Amino acid sequence: QIPSALVRAASYNFPLPQDIPKAVSSLLGAPTHAQVTSIFRLHSSEEEVILVQQAISKGVPFSQNLRVVDTLVLRPHKEGGVLFTKWTHSVWQPPLPVFARPVQWFVDKKVRKDALSTAGELARILQEA
User: Fold this and answer.
1) Suppose 35 and one of 44, 59, 90, 126 were both cysteines; which one would form an S-S bond, judging by CB atoms 3.0 to 4.6 Å apart?
2) Banded pLDDT at 2 (limits 50, 70, 90)
3) C-beta separation of 112 from 27 below 8 A
4) Whole-structure pTM value
5) pLDDT tens digits for range 10-30
């Protein structure tokens, strides 16, 4: 824990993707939304700004096992401007049972795909600011 970090939480309903494969949707049932709580921790220093977001959800089978962690770092670039770096990963704890691994495979793939698209959009917004 970092004493100078600011911490906030937000809860919201998040629509589930429409492109869920049939094998995965048969394991999940038919929910249309997940209840998500995101915890944000913001820390800044002379050298960088770090934002860590951890999202947990409920209302979808196996969601109690998943935590999605985004880490965004902004620091001065040696040639001017700002270097923006983003890491995203899924944490499954405890691991899913073998029969549910298609859910894990789909979610991990979707998290990576969405992380790439949202990082590009965030970079564009930051450049315009």
Assistant:
1) 59
2) low
3) no
4) 0.84
5) 999 999 888 888 878 777 776
